[in-house]
Amino acid sequence: MMRLLLLLMGFSVMATSQEAKLPFGKMHIDEIPQGSRGVSIADLDGNGLNDIVVANQVDSTKQLGNTIYFNHAEGYKRVAIADGKLDAWSESVHTVDVDKDGDLDLFFTTQFGTHNLLYLNNGSGHFSAADGGALTSDKTNSPGACWCDYDLDGDMDVFVVNREEEDDELYINNGKAEFKKAMNGPWKGQGGDGRACAWGDLNGDGMPDLYVVNFVRKTDGKVIGKHPNQLYWNTGNGSFKTATNSIVVEEENASYGVALVDFDYDHDLDIYVTNVASSDVNALYENTGDGTFGKLTDLAVSYQIKRPSKGQSWGDFNNDGWLDLYVANGTEGYPEIQNYLFLGTADHSFVRVYNSLPAIEAHISAGAASGDLDHDGDLDLYVCNWGGETEANDHYTNLHSSNGWIKLRLQGTVSNSFGIGSWISLTTDDQRTMTRYFIRETGYGSENAPEVHFGLGNATLIENIMVEWPSGESQTFRNLAPNAVYKIIEGKEIKRIDP
């Protein structure tokens, strides 16, 4: 039986000259401790509501397995994805259209030399195990993966990171959910200890580059140091070049999660890395516009976090037009600690929220993701708690309602079907311009919802929206009403689909 626990708490912080209010409620969709690592938020059954998929560990005390919570008007319905594979300890989960049929399929990475898992969606949220070629036949020890159309041929490829000095691998999709392993790449022979990765155009040349975060160095099972992270430039001809002489690959931290985000709205991708060692602070690297980076050490999202962090999710949680950040903290052998919420401000700095949900409870958390789960225009949070025998996962319901918003659902025609890797720029009638790069992987083992969400503050009109697709196609739409969901089809029209 599912039991619903709702705690309503409000708070206020001085983020700017005005008081910012951001009330959250807490819901336990499931009281069963699952040892969860990663979460993906997406509409899997086509009913217009975002569902929740959780990657779980399986051992003698936790036998639930990977789980979908289907979101219906009357509540959530739990469906276990057993398929005879309860022995698979999963760490990351991905909802992605691997076969170009317009619905979202499922992919889980697993540990301990087992096969990674791929399930195809029949269009209504029913899944069947699939043979993905090398992607599912390789036996690996994989904490994470990241999906992207790296070669711009219209289908989604995947990079899988591996532990314990195993090579990371790039798997290339033939468009039919059949994957072959790239035989060459600068990651071959690197012997890293990968935890997460992210694709994004980091130097503005139109090709998605690859950033990989690593944990520690080991010899004979003993930790002897930390690993640097790695950046691979996509040359556009199917090959990659290793980045050197950059702070994003020179620092050695025990890293666990990464997100690429344009936090300062200057139309280039910055990098935020979560680190686990208590001696390391999380790192925000600012892109200068050409793929060179500087490290920002004077922002609260960096200097206020000197404790083990894994998950992260960026989004405008109070719909004021500035990006905020949620950080999930905790690791094995460390006391339960609070997670962090930072509100973004007009000068692209951050103010930490204290003494309120979703940042007052102590947990050992892992992945976190955001999306509009109750279909009211603001971003909710789902947090995986894996430490201890009694920790259920947390669903934080955003109760903020005073600012405007817009959600965009992209449909590629030449580009991949969900428009992953698109740039979106939006200008409001109060002359604010905001940008998003559409990428779903966030932090550790998790994915945000496949919708491009903007908070609009007090704006009453969206003067224009420009979408730059991975194919090179560019579209501009003008004079759109706020507080609505729009579908944008590449090379065609924009449609208001809800309400």
Q: Could you list some keywords that capture this structure?
A:
single chain; 499 residues; 5-stranded antiparallel beta sheet; signal; UnbV_ASPIC; Integrin_alpha_N; FG-GAP; Methylamine Dehydrogenase, Chain H; 2% helix; ASPIC/UnbV domain-containing protein
Describe this structure in words.
This protein is mainly β. The protein folds into two domains: 375 residues, Integrin alpha, N-terminal (Methylamine Dehydrogenase, Chain H, 7 Propeller), CATH 2.130.10; 91 residues, Immunoglobulin-like. The strands form 14 sheets. Strands 1-4-37-36-35 form a five-stranded antiparallel beta sheet, with no helix packed on it. A four-stranded antiparallel beta sheet has the order 5-6-7-8, with no helix packed on it. A four-stranded antiparallel beta sheet has the order 9-10-12-13, with no helix packed on it. It is built from three helices and 47 strands. 2% of the residues lie in helices and 46% in strands. A hairpin with a 5-residue loop joins strand 32 and strand 33. The protein starts with 6 loop residues before the first strand and ends with a strand.
